[in-house]
User: What shape does this take?
Amino acid sequence: MSNKSHKKTWIAVLLNFFIYGVGYIYLRKKIGLGVLLLILGLIDVGISFSNLDVAFNSYVVFGGLLVGTYLALDAYRLSGHKITFLGEISLGETSEKIIEKIGDVLIVLLVIVLLIYSMVLTIIPKETKSISPQQTDIRTKPITIYIDKFPYGVDKKYENSIRESMSFWEKNVNVNFKEVATFSEADVYVKWFKEFGTGTLGHTLNQKVIDIAIGDSNCLEKWRPYTYNTVLLIAQHELGHALGGKDDYENPNKIMYYKLSTRYEIDVEESDVIPDGWTRFYPICTKNDIATYSFEVTSGEPLDIYIVPSQQEYELLAKNKEFKHYATCEGKEVKFYKKVCTISSGSGIALKNPTTFGLGSDAQFNLKIIES
Ligand SMILES: [Zn+2]
Assistant: This one.
């Protein structure tokens, strides 16, 4: 046997073992079978890569090795080598052909069975994933949960919201959580986002990956964190999904209700200077038609403060024209102002540094608005 054909044998054997059917194509023998096996094998690899549970399933691994071994041996045989099992059994040429055909059909069937099994593994959720918060089945094994690192520049106090949510569900349904230190040991993976930018507050993928938003930039395009309680409600809701709970479209007071009205920790917090005779306006970003806010202003110089129902009313004020405002929320020449006002959507706070014939001082002020 020449070196060349020896080399060719081993290439064919290895190809058939690692990439089903390619050894046949390489040998230009059983090309049709080779192409069929290659296509089935590629689909199988695709499924395994999309779901690691499949890739590491022992039946799938064992079946794959079995197919690879058979194909490698067949490539070895087709390269002109003789393989004998259980001593010498001599068969007629016709019988050999029939056995070979049966072998080919069986191996294709085995690959198809493995493929179907992999698909079934991907489609059918794991036992731990089918727990519904309404069910009261006894769980002996805790659900492991990995809490990802917190985004830079966000107060770490929010991290506790997911732990509080774990105890919430432990109290309400028969479930146990265990926090783990690595992603790989976790059944559930919690990720934090400063914001999604889509109006979404959180989502849960395949009952496995929980994404939670901590704030948004919907108010005056500046990022603001939500209140701890808002993040807690998001975390409880998403963890409910991880346990198999579905969105509730009927009961707004239930944790699985599909909507949540968020609150910012602080709606507006500003420090600025108003020159003598000038005005400033800060709109309030309420999602409700009517909301109650607490306004707090401290200033180095006395200011006139008005809560106006719209930007238009503020513009009238700035032009020294007649304007509408919430009379009970008015502050005249005050250095410290604190009021709780119920206002309609579109309202804002107007600050005016009243001039003393252009001889007054700049007013350095701090403003804080919190929904109450
Ligand atoms: Zn939901």
